[in-house]
Amino acid sequence: MSQQSVLAQFVAAMGSNPAPIYLRVKQAIVRQITDGVWPPHQRVPSESELVNELGVSRMTINRALRELTSEGYLVRMQGVGTFVAEQKAGTPMLEVHNIADEIAQRGHRHRAEVIALGEIAADVEQATLLGVAPGQPLFHSLIVHYDNDIPVQLEDRLVNPSMAPDYLRQNYATQTPYTYLMQVAPLTAGEHVVEAVMPGVAQRKLLALEEHQPCLLIRRQTWSDSRIVTFARLLYPGSRYQLIGRFSGHG
Hints:
Blueprint (H helix, E strand, L loop, with lengths): L2 H11 L7 H14 L12 H8 L3 H13 L3 E4 L3 E4 L4 E4 L6 H7 L4 E12 L2 H7 L6 E11 L2 E10 L17 H8 L4 E9 L3 H6 L8 E10 L2 E11 L3 E4 L7
Parallel strand pairs: 3-10
Antiparallel strand pairs: 1-2, 4-5, 5-6, 6-9, 7-8, 8-9
Helix pairs in contact: 1-2, 2-4, 3-4
């Protein structure tokens, strides 16, 4: 059975779906991609081929392909064709998750390299972020997380010792800070600030980035029972990650 026939059958099976036709076509194409029927870099059928195969208008196909391109599923090359895009890994923007679990859910292997783990004296800015007095000891860790040996996150974290007294005694090559902190000081509230940044020289080296490659930065502060537990700067290579948010209500 041809790949187009599979697509046509899927669209036909959605006949009772009240969604607009262009949306059903989009869903069918995404299904082909997520199921691995159309792997990254494969050329997808042309607009004319899809019109003939699916029995819908060219306008419908054009809209579906155009929107899938803007959403990052497809790449359209003028005069060459339309191809399946290399899908970026994703992390939930408004939720707190274990990066090791995110990577495992993609069927990939997570590993971590601990760059620094120790105690520091809080400066004024750090003391403010953690709700302690300047000069008070804080725990600090710097960890690179890998997805199939590709660095995808640089985790720079400050921890309030009173909330996680054994933080420095953990092996973060076998468990993430998230796992330990959720055990000793379960998250009850969090705040995110997201921005695009240019990494410094040391950060570029740790993330194996070329010069001028931008990153996505999440600055995350978390609380447990109204007490600040940790402040983390999570740096993601912009070319390897996307941040995903889901909202409800009226925006």
